[in-house]
Amino acid sequence: MTALDDTNVAILLAPAGTEEVEFTEPRQAVEDAGANVDAVGPEAGEAQTVESDLNSAGTYEVEKAVSDVSADDYDALLVPGGTVGADKLRGDEGTVSFVREFFESEKPVGAICHGPWVLVEADVVEGRTLTSYPSLQTDIRNAGGEWVDEEVVTDGRLVTSRKPDDLDAYCEQVVEVFGESE
């Protein structure tokens, strides 16, 4: 594994509806590689995650509100999915602006499942090849991206994946890309 010592990573967490394993497993993977990780969301406080979009899972702390941080505070960004969670994130202009900053700064970003909805809203998928949960493919194409049905896709410093079944490959690729020097 690539060491991520002294790497600061933000992971988005919606107030409710983020898919738990898409939050916990990537977070653990980058922490295990040495990164410092902050859960960032539209507002600080508790957030309720879900399992399979429908069942309540764990409660986690959103440590920092997007209004209190910027991409300058971090080296990389993780965007988990969950249909409801991703929809809440893409509906929050502060979160969308925060995501856009990572692309403008050419910092690495990982997004899984419904997470790319936030990238579509941030207007950063044009000309990129990515994957997501299959129901997002039209949104991605309409935003100028090329959607492919693959376990994990890396386009420059963007890593995307389709679903929880792909987490092992996604987490491995995220750690590798986040660890590459600029």
From TrEMBL:
<feature type="domain" description="DJ-1/PfpI">
    <location>
        <begin position="9"/>
        <end position="176"/>
    </location>
</feature>
<dbReference type="GO" id="GO:0016740">
    <property type="term" value="F:transferase activity"/>
</dbReference>
<dbReference type="Pfam" id="PF01965">
    <property type="entry name" value="DJ-1_PfpI"/>
</dbReference>
<dbReference type="InterPro" id="IPR029062">
    <property type="entry name" value="Class_I_gatase-like"/>
</dbReference>
<dbReference type="GO" id="GO:0008233">
    <property type="term" value="F:peptidase activity"/>
</dbReference>
<dbReference type="InterPro" id="IPR006286">
    <property type="entry name" value="C56_PfpI-like"/>
</dbReference>
<protein>
    <submittedName>
        <fullName>Protease I</fullName>
    </submittedName>
</protein>
<comment type="similarity">
    <text>Belongs to the peptidase C56 family.</text>
</comment>
<keyword id="KW-0378">Hydrolase</keyword>
<keyword id="KW-0645">Protease</keyword>
<keyword id="KW-0808">Transferase</keyword>
<keyword id="KW-0315">Glutamine amidotransferase</keyword>
<dbReference type="InterPro" id="IPR002818">
    <property type="entry name" value="DJ-1/PfpI"/>
</dbReference>
<dbReference type="GO" id="GO:0006508">
    <property type="term" value="P:proteolysis"/>
</dbReference>
